[in-house]
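User: I'm new to structure prediction. If I give you an amino acid sequence, what do you actually give back? Let's try with this one:
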Amino acid sequence: MKIINLRDYYPFYQSDFFIDVPDEIAELFRQFNRKEHADFERRRIYNAYYSLDAGDNIEKDVVLLVLSPEEIYERKLSKKELYAAFNSLPEKQAKRIYAYFFLGMNKAEIARIEGVSKPAVAHSIEQGLKSIEKYLKKFL
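Assistant: Good question. You get back a string of structure tokens that encode the predicted 3D arrangement of the chain. For your 140 residues, that looks like this:
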């Protein structure tokens, strides 16, 4: 049995309060103190005096991205332009670009499915991206 002072562990105690605890509990208190001190030293060394759950709504601002009406309108316009550029492509190029970028397929898989060579798919995707780039430059 060990004697510990609860005032050392609980800040709301105003005066010393000694109590007998089993050795295992005393060891847990020591481990807790060591961990607290290690965390304090890490914060001190790395100047990490902030927390996302500090209560100043930083985490809300990070998680909930609130866009202004202007930003929403700009995104909507850019999406429309991108869709228009995508729709201006020939059907094969559009399908290949869609499979590559949106479905996450690699060029070899697309070539195997379509029964063509991998360089043909790669060239088609490159040409499609160049066409999209030219189309979008008209609007900028």
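You can read the tokens as a compact description of the fold. Here is one thing that stands out. The beta strands are 2-5, 18-21.
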